[in-house]
Write a structure and sequence with these properties.
The complex is a heterodimer of chains A (378) and B (292). Chain A is mainly β and 378 residues long. Chain A is 8% helix and 55% strand. Chain A has a 16-stranded antiparallel beta barrel with strand order 1-4-5-6-7-8-9-10-11-12-13-14-15-16-17-18. The relative contact order of chain A is 0.13. About 3% of the residues of chain A have low confidence. Helices cover 44% and strands 14% of the residues of chain B. Chain B is an alpha/beta fold. Chain B has a 4-stranded parallel beta sheet, sandwiched between helices. In chain B, strands 6-5-7-8 form a 4-stranded parallel beta sheet, with helices on both faces. Chain B contains 10 helices and 8 strands. In chain B, α2 packs across α5, α3 packs across α4 and α5 packs antiparallel against α6. Classes of the chains: A mainly beta (378), B alpha/beta (292). At the A-B interface, β12 of A face α3 and α4 of B.
Chain lengths: 378, 292
């Protein structure tokens, strides 16, 4: 927490210096929104007498997001997103998911700068908060390569719009502390006694295909040290797209997908077990692995939606540890986004060198949104 | 050398004279009014199509691109376009002049109490003021001031165009008021609270909305209440905008002698609404024919 406060103080100072604005007291309160999610879920991962058996449905608290957003001054905005992770609602601790300031005006060449802790503009899915997903579970490739919380780190980000005529093309580059790698890499201390910075960049273009359809395509890269002690580096390359056809206010079809490719040199797996050659001696391996997801979401009659998702993913440390999943989901939003209900079925099959196993999941998620949470950009 | 300099200065002057004021508006109605003022000295684009609900617009990067190179952004204000700040920020245009045209309006239905139990209520009042044609004069005055700020040399041109348009509009207002005079006091039902200014201007009584609360979809119990109201009252028209689902309104209309009519709140909402005056012509002719 101290580290976040320090970053925030530094950020505030930078804003003042950048914009030459005094510390005038504002009387306007920021927008505050509260978005909790609850879950009833059952799965058949446990077997009874060799037969599949669904567990007793468990009703649990999934997560609470508190979103605080406002302008700091005419040139900059700030976002604070606090989360209380489930399932322990009463004794769980509220943590800082995002805490950043963005300078949106006043810099040359239309440059935007962001600093603090934030979800990195990497791929298309990473910027989506769970309450905005049309389904309940995170795509396997995102979870395996970027971790459950996604690529979310302390850093400094700069973005510009490239001069590509009427096509919106944005280039974003980030210098990150590298802490977000920990979860995906299986290393808790990413510093290894010295800073372990990571870098990310994304180039995206938005095309208006017609009055009713739009397409966004993106190319991202991410690199950092996955083993700070041996200074071993990984490289991710990612392509993404999102297509939306909205013929009326009541109907829309969204298609979105991403493919992530990983390459790294490593001497141990995610669980820190050393790689051994045929003679049992430690060896360094070059690993190439990848993952993808593709989903379609069809909104009909304004308040209903349904869709399907396909996942396929290896892991950062093994191309033999594979999983694929197929999910179907249904959404019901009776009054815009203030109330939501999502029913999700997913079949996941894990293929390990030692064999295969599959699991079926049925989940019912409920959520509400209290407050003036801003609309999400396309 | 002197000849070259003269040619260069003439070329630059010609370029400056050709430079158009680039205006983007939220609604197509505002785009039409901008064209009436600016003529061939403005380049106009808009965000919301006439057949689109202006309350709910997806924040698209393409809209940011429209604003990126614009000089002026005209908006209705009063939080009709809650999506606009994100587009303005995303445009990264530090020179953009953002003009909220509501500031001099006489506002209707400003809520005393405000919370989500009231539905999607606008805290600064009902924002559909452009549907009272008398408000166009006030809107145009603010538009002219903004356009003069960007292009001071065109002041006389802008004012002459606006005056000519407002003269035609005054004549049209007199014509529309005469058409609607026999129906003063007529009771109508609307889908959304879009027609308060229109009704206030023409002396109509809006007795209810198909939406139980602003922005809240019709519920069976509320529809039943309206059916009872329509059966017991003298209602001839249920007004629905082109972008709303008319099934609940049709259900109410079927239970009595009322008729569902599609009136448009914006230019382009129906084929006949080519511009603001044509939109009002269409709305008033359609309504008068139904109330007759």
């Amino acid at each position: 927490m101290q580290a976040y406060l320090k970053i925030f103080r530094m950020g505030w100072l930078a804003i003042v210096l950048l914009t030459n604005i005094g510390l005038a007291q504002t009387t306007v309160n920021p927008d505050i929104s509260v978005i909790p999610r609850f879950l009833i879920e059952t799965n058949d991962s446990e077997r009874a007498d060799g037969k599949r058996k669904f567990s007793r449905p468990d009703y649990s608290f999934e997560e609470l997001e508190v979103v605080i957003q406002s302008y700091l001054n005419p040139f900059a905005k700030a976002d604070v997103i606090l989360t209380l992770p489930g399932p322990d609602l009463e004794t769980g601790k509220l943590g800082v998911e995002e805490l950043f300031a963005s300078v949106v005006r006043g810099l040359p060449l239309g440059l935007n700068v962001r600093f603090g802790k934030y979800r990195v503009d990497y791929g298309k899915f990473n910027l989506m908060h769970p309450h905005a997903w049309p389904f309940v579970t995170q795509p396997l490739s995102q979870e395996r390569f970027l971790g459950e919380e996604g690529l979310n780190d302390l850093g400094l980000s700069a973005s510009i719009l490239l001069p590509t005529g009427n096509v919106y093309t944005k280039l974003t580059a980030d210098l990150l502390r590298g802490a977000a790698i920990a979860e995906a890499a299986g290393i808790e201390d990413t510093t290894g006694g010295q800073p372990s910075y990571a870098n990310s960049a994304r180039l995206s273009s938005f095309f208006t295909l017609s009055d009713y359809s739009d397409l966004e395509v993106g190319l991202s890269g991410f690199t950092g040290l996955h083993d700070p002690y041996r200074r071993d580096r990984f490289y991710y390359a990612n392509v993404d797209f999102k297509y939306k056809y909205r013929p009326s206010s009541y109907t829309s079809l969204t298609l979105q997908g991403e493919y992530l490719f990983n390459t790294r040199k490593a001497r141990q797996d995610r669980d820190l077990n050393p790689f051994l050659d045929a003679s049992g001696n430690p060896e360094q391996r070059t690993i190439h692995s990848s993952g993808l997801y593709l989903y379609a979401d069809y909104q009909f009659k304004k308040i209903y939606s349904f869709g399907g998702r396909y996942d396929w993913s290896q892991t950062p440390y093994s191309k033999d540890d594979k999983a694929q999943a197929f999910a179907v989901f249904f959404g019901y939003y009776p009054v815009e986004e203030t109330l939501g209900l999502r029913l999700h079925y997913q079949h996941t099959k894990n293929d390990l060198p030692t064999g295969s196993e599959s699991v079926n999941l049925i989940a019912l998620q409920t959520l509400f949104s209290l407050g003036p949470h801003k609309a999400h950009v396309f | 050398m002197q000849r070259f300099l003269s040619f260069f200065l003439i070329f630059i002057s010609a370029l400056a004279a050709e430079a158009k004021v680039r205006v983007v508006t939220t609604l197509s109605d505002l785009a039409d009014l901008t064209r009436q003022i600016g003529g061939d000295r403005v380049q106009v684009d808009f965000i919301v199509r006439g057949n689109q609900n202006p309350h709910f617009v997806e924040v698209k990067p393409s809209y940011m691109m429209k604003l990126k190179s614009a000089d002026i952004f005209f908006m209705i204000g009063m939080e009709l376009e809650r999506w606009a700040p994100q587009i303005i920020d995303g445009s990264r245009n530090p020179k953009l002049l953002v003009v909220d045209l509501s500031k001099n309006m006489q506002k209707l239905e400003v809520p005393g109490r405000l919370d989500a139990s009231q539905g999607d209520v606008h805290r600064f009042g009902n924002p559909h003021y452009w549907l009272d044609a008398r408000n166009v004069r006030l809107m145009m005055e603010d538009m002219i001031m903004a356009m003069i700020k960007v292009s001071p040399n065109d002041e006389q041109y802008f004012r002459a165009n606006a005056n000519a348009y407002l003269s035609r509009l005054d004549a049209k207002i007199a014509e529309w008021e005469a058409t609607m005079k026999p129906f003063v006091g007529s009771r109508v039902i609307t889908f959304h609270k879009s027609w308060s200014y229109f009704a206030n201007w023409l002396g109509l009584v809006v007795a209810g909305q198909v939406e139980p609360k602003p922005g809240i979809p019709p519920s069976p119990s509320h529809t039943a209440e309206l059916i009872s109201l329509v059966r017991n009252g003298n209602f001839k028209a249920i007004i629905v905008e082109p972008f709303y689902d008319a099934s609940a309104a049709e259900q109410i209309a079927r239970s009595a002698s009322a008729k569902v009519i599609r009136l448009t709140t914006s230019v382009g909402g129906v084929d006949a609404a080519k511009d603001y005056m044509a939109m009002m012509d269409y709305n008033i002719a359609t309504l008068a024919a139904t109330l007759r």
